[in-house]
Amino acid sequence: MQFSRLIIATALVAAGASQHVDAQEFHVGAVYSADQLWGGRIGLRSDDYAQTLLPDSWLSAIGNPTIAFEGALNQWQDSNDSSDKLTALTLSPVFQWQIAGEQRPLYVEAGIGVSVLDGTTIGDRNLSIHFQFEDRLALSWQYSSASKARISLAYTHYSQADLDRPNDGLDFFSINWHIPFG
User: Fold this and answer.
1) Which of 2, 23, 38, 116 is least surrounded, with the fewest CB atoms within 10 Å of its CB?
2) What are the CA-CA distances from residue 170 to residues 34, 85, 116 (Å)?
3) Which Gene3D superfamilies match (predicted)?
């Protein structure tokens, strides 16, 4: 548990130290895994400086997505043992393509980021190390033309790319509510 407190403290310090970056969106979500794991996710998304990371020619080649950075805190629990939990701090670039709608757009989102976990096992899953990659794919719908608030359905995979063995990984499905501010 000391490690999870360290993660949370580090996140709070980092958020306070980076006041020059304005988050434009808060999100909260519920997650579930076929491995009988469930949990939640809270996070912030910002597009400050993200669009300048890749040359315009590269973005044009992949369909001109918008890019944002997303930081989140996740906690998962084994459905069969409520004391068996994992907490993860994640940071990921998110690429977003509008695929339909003008008044109420539908988006596809994808990203590969990094995460740090406060443990290496949950349920019967052995992740071996605290460092994991976070791969995601989502459909996101802006449900009101008057608001930029969205609902998304996402698939997220955590794995450490065989840096160590075993590498059981984790797969989650989630529903998230994205609330713009600022």
Assistant:
1) 2
2) 9, 13, 13
3) 2.40.160.20
pLDDT tens digit sequence for 40-61: 999 999 988 777 777 888 888 9
Report the C-alpha dihedral over residues 1, 166, 174, 117, rounded to 10 degrees: 30
For 79-130, list the strands marked E by DSSP.
81-100, 106-117, 121-122, 125-126
What distance in Å separates the CA atoms of residue 83 and residue 3, rounded to the nearest whole number? Answer: 16
DSSP bridge partners of 44: 26, 71
User: For residue 93, what are the domain limits?
Assistant: 2-180
- Give me the CATH number covering residue 138: 2.40.160.20
What global pTM score does this model have?
A: 0.86
| pLDDT tens track for 127-166 | 999 999 999 999 999 998 888 899 999 999 999 999 999 9
